[in-house]
Design a protein that fits this description.
By secondary structure, this protein is an alpha/beta fold. It has helices at 38-48, 62-65, 68-75, 151-162, 177-187, 192-206, 216-222, 231-236, 245-258; strands spanning 7-13, 17-23, 30-33, 54-56, 78-82, 94-96, 101-104, 107-113, 122-126, 131-135, 138-139, 142-143, 169-172, 214-215.
Length: 259
């Protein structure tokens, strides 16, 4: 069943990390996207009756990899990690970079190098399934903090998401939705789609849920960091309309850092 619709489960890890399992129902192969901590991953596997075959690492930060040794010991899962994180994720079965392909049973992803949050960050794009695992590069209503590059580097990584089909599901690495919504509204308060999205986020939070996944179409309509080319966002950071979106993005990211 190479074209089977993948089964996906999301759950909280630590305080605000998002754990994700993706399973190919045709083969039973199942991957965790990062392992922020072992217990929630193992509990979800047990509850679903799934067998973990793979761990796909987006980047080397401890809050994304520290549960890997216990999960590998318990499941024997193969680890795939960024080539540029080889020193921080030792013992992986495979190290990957731009353009490499990764399979989970009959599901296939293309690896994008998406630096900016950190130099080794990668994204897994399951094109046929229209799913992207963006780690700490793109969040619902936000983006990662720039840590090991100039802001323009992260902007170039984010631009790649703009070309994906609007229905592509975006699974990010953290639930920062409410704080991101507050900033987005400060930057673009007249955006009706954003107002509705922020209200939805508040409602789901009260129900103990979160706005992950999102979709590329929704993020293009509501996420200020993907909308840096819009005149309203240039005005929000006191720049003239027509300013290079990378410059607008840089100003927005600096504002968010102190927001």
């Amino acid at each position: 069943m190479p074209n089977a619709v993948p089964e996906i489960r999301t759950f909280l890890c630590r305080s605000d990390n998002i754990g994700v399992l993706i399973r190919d129902p045709g083969t039973g192969a199942c991957a965790a996207i990062d392992v922020p901590e072992a217990a929630p991953v193992l509990a979800t596997l047990e509850a679903e009756g799934w067998r973990l075959t793979d761990i796909l690492v987006t980047h080397r930060h401890a809050d994304h990899i520290e549960g890997i040794p216990e999960v590998v010991e318990r499941t024997g899962a193969r680890v795939t990690a960024p080539e540029k994180a080889r020193a921080a994720v030792p013992g992986a079965a495979r190290y990957v970079g731009e353009g490499d392909r990764v399979s989970v049973g009959g599901l296939e992803a293309t690896v994008w190098e998406t630096p900016g949050h950190c130099a080794d960050h990668i994204t897994y794009h399951f094109g046929k399934a229209r799913i992207v695992f963006s780690g700490d590069t793109l969040f619902t209503l936000g983006c990662g903090r720039v840590m090991e590059a100039e802001p323009a580097t992260l902007w170039r990584s984010l631009v790649r998401f703009l070309d994906l089909p609007g229905e592509t599901a975006v699974y990010s690495g953290h639930d920062y939705v409410l704080s991101n919504a507050r900033f987005a509204l400060a930057a673009e308060r007249e955006n009706a789609a954003l107002q509705a999205r922020a209200a939805e986020a508040e409602r789901l939070a009260q129900e103990g849920r979160f706005l992950i996944p999102s979709t590329i179409g929704t993020e293009k309509a509501t996420n200020p960091f993907l909308r840096a080319g819009e005149p309203a966002l240039a005005r929000a950071v006191d720049l003239p309309e027509g300013t290079d979106p990378a410059q607008v993005f840089t100003a927005l990211r600096a504002w968010k850092n102190r927001f």
